[in-house]
Amino acid sequence: MIGIIGSMKIEIDGIIDRMEEKEETVISGITFAKGLVSGAETVVAICGTGKVSASVCTQTMIMKYAPDVIINTGVAGSLSENLHIGDIAISESMVQHDVDISELGYELGYLCELELVYLPVDPKAKKIMVECVEKAGVNYEIGVIASGDQFISAQAKKDAIKSNFNAIACEMEGGSIAQTCYMNQTPFCIIRAISDEANGEASIDYTIFASKAAKNAINITLEFIKKFNAENSEQE
Ligand code: ADE
Question: Ligand 1 within 6 A of 75 CB?
């Protein structure tokens, strides 16, 4: 079973539309749609905006469906000069840029209980995702993606996240999906299409481009579902 999480309807609709034999279950106000996508058993959910909603959704998905892998697809602000609107960011690892206990002597983003800052994605899922992006012929970059409960639209904040974590993109859920997966030993991977450049024009760009950008990530995620399923069935 493949788990797919997006924070908004526009990030997920293109996958739910293709689902056959769909069964919906609502838990904690979140609808989980389980069925077949390109013949692969898949569960899809819209988690809502921000890290808390994303964690509730991820933990519930893991406990109810025990997916083999969780993919978070959606949009992000670019922190990299190589990533422009419509391009794709694939995570090497995830960080939570708003976790800050530096006053107590810890590194920014340090997760005490896990004793780390960067949550690594599953190498096998990442490899398949990269193959899917290359097949789609979309410009992409692999690197750290930073999450926090803020829409980033100020150059100073953008520069700080970029230099503190060497991050290539910012968004609001992936870091907590990653942490929840890590705590449950569930493999995960994050793919985000660029909707804006997290600068002074971000709110205008986001309004214009988010839905179109989200489709780029959805198309690659659909390809991932096929490929992951094919490779997993071969091994069985
Ligand atoms: N998602 C898309 N653009 C974003 C931004 N600029 N900041 C945070 N999350 C985003």
Answer: yes
